[in-house]
Specification:
By secondary structure, the chain is an alpha+beta fold. The relative contact order is 0.15. Helices cover about 15% and strands about 40% of the residues. Strands 1, 2, 3, 4, 5, 6, 7, 8, 9 and 10 form a ten-stranded antiparallel sheet that branches. It is built from five helices and 19 strands. It has two domains: about 120 residues, Lipocalin, CATH 2.40.128; about 110 residues, Lipocalin (Beta Barrel). Strand 14 and strand 15 form a beta hairpin.
């Protein structure tokens, strides 16, 4: 017996390459139009070539998981992990979660990406090139979520929220843990990978667990995403911290 393989053309490879390094704004979901902003944020998806991960938002929580390209146009999504905020309008986020379980192929033409279930479109998106990592991370960010099960965010940080400032030209960070000032460095790599180095800190006594929770979660961060002034820090597929641009 003999077998044959389907050889991908150069055009096919270029088409798949265009899927990455692009922020895709959701314009239609499960046959219904998606507004430009939901809860003041732009609904989007993005695809990371390194480790085949996707990020998405319906205007509330960050959603992240993995995907598999089975052939030139076949795709399969894992059901994503997400933060657990409650927002006034959760309809687009719920639609994204439904769509991820349906989509099994895609069509990419120029700046238009269509995810389909068979021949039926389940999501339509238009491309808007993501800004560079330097532009995305530069500046000061204030934390508004941290992964911690035994105490609420307000209980951890009753008076002051942690902040972090990126100086991207030097790959340096500094900020405040809600008590002590800190400084250090970081490295980024393809696929929005990030690793923070050891932090130097002042040594004031700090009541409560806020500072230790902040530092321990920062050490876990392996990836990040930035969208509409929100910095999401991820460990594997779990969102461990989220910051707003100041």
């Amino acid at each position: 017996m003999s077998s044959c393989a389907i050889k991908k053309s150069g055009a096919d490879k270029n088409m798949n390459a265009a899927l990455f390094d692009t922020k895709w704004q959701l314009t239609e979901l499960n046959g219904k139009p998606v507004p430009n902003e939901v809860n003041g944020k732009q609904p989007f998806m993005s695809f990371e070539k390194n480790e085949n991960r996707y990020s998405a938002s319906g205007g509330c929580n960050g959603i992240g998981g993995t995907f598999e390209l089975k052939s030139t146009k076949k795709i399969k999504f894992s059901q994503g992990m997400s933060t657990m905020m409650a927002c006034p309008d959760m309809s687009v986020e719920q639609g994204i979660n439904q769509m991820l379980g349906k989509a099994d192929n895609f069509e990419l033409t120029g700046d238009l990406l269509i995810l389909k279930q068979g021949t039926t479109p389940v999501a339509k998106m238009k491309a808007s090139k993501a800004t560079s990592a330097s532009t995305e991370l530069e500046g000061t960010w204030e934390m508004d979520y941290v992964l911690h099960t035994s105490e609420s965010f307000q209980a951890l940080y009753p008076e002051r929220k942690p902040t972090i400032t990126f100086t991207t030209a030097e790959h340096k960070v500094n900020g405040n843990s809600s008590c002590n000032n800190f400084f250090g460095d970081y490295k980024t790599s393809e696929g929005n990978r990030i690793k923070f180095g050891a932090l130097g800190m002042t040594r004031m006594f700090c009541p409560g667990n806020g500072e230790s929770v902040f530092v321990k979660n920062l050490e876990k961060v392996t990836r990040y995403s930035v969208s509409e002034g929100i910095l999401t820090c991820i460990s594997d597929d779990i969102v461990v911290m989220r910051f707003k641009k100041k």
